[in-house]
Design goal:
By secondary structure, this protein is α+β, with helices and mostly antiparallel strands. The protein is about 20% helix and about 35% strand.
């Protein structure tokens, strides 16, 4: 931003100063707000959802065996259409979840699934993101037997849209169950203390 000098006697300078302040307050219409670069070999495993009818095991999950996965939560500050630009160097799949993600329930909250082929090519996907709602991107291999190459590898995903996209935490599997158990236990202890007083 330019420094604008204002004087009390110049209406033009006041207008320029107000315009400069207004321009600084208005966000860019379409800015790359977040890029994630990582490796999918995390040591965490799941059975991914089926992308193709031919791989469906009858429950909606893929008959490909357990695969390592990488999950990351993101949140946008403005509702609108966002573009995900994805590049991978291995036979990979991408899944997008809305609201919550659990590898123990891979069909819950699933919004979309993609076969990221061909590798080493930037693929783009578009969808609406609601402000303040968490979304989760999950990268996984395609087949556990390595038919199409390695099951883990490096990837990059960028989010472009009308607002700022930032990282959100991914609850560890079972963390919500433990939190619920702790809350129930605390309430029970409180009731016992109230009854004895």
């Amino acid at each position: 931003m330019q420094n604008v000098k204002t004087t009390t006697g110049s209406l033009v300078n006041r207008f320029l100063a107000a315009a400069a302040l207004l321009a600084a307050a208005v966000p860019a219409a379409n800015a790359a707000s977040l890029t994630i670069e990582a490796h999918s070999g995390t040591g965490a495993y799941w059975q991914r959802p089926a992308i193709y009818h031919s791989e469906d095991d009858g429950t909606g999950l893929a008959n490909t065996g357990e695969l390592e996965f990488y999950a990351q939560g993101v949140v946008a500050d403005v509702t609108g259409m966002y573009t995900l630009s994805v590049t991978v160097d291995y036979a990979a799949t991408l899944f997008v979840y809305g609201g919550a993600f659990s590898p123990d329930a891979p069909l819950d909250n699933l919004l979309a699934g993609y076969d990221l082929y061909p590798v080493n090519t930037t693929l783009q996907f578009q969808g609406e993101m609601l402000a303040s709602q968490p979304y989760f991107v999950v990268f996984s291999g395609f087949l556990s037997d390595g038919t199409f190459g390695p099951n883990t590898g490096s990837f990059s995903v960028s989010f472009d849209g009308p607002g700022t996209v930032s990282l959100a935490s991914v609850p560890a599997p079972g963390a919500l169950v433990l939190l619920g158990s702790a809350l129930v236990g605390a309430l029970g202890l409180r009731r016992r203390r109230a009854a004895t007083v």
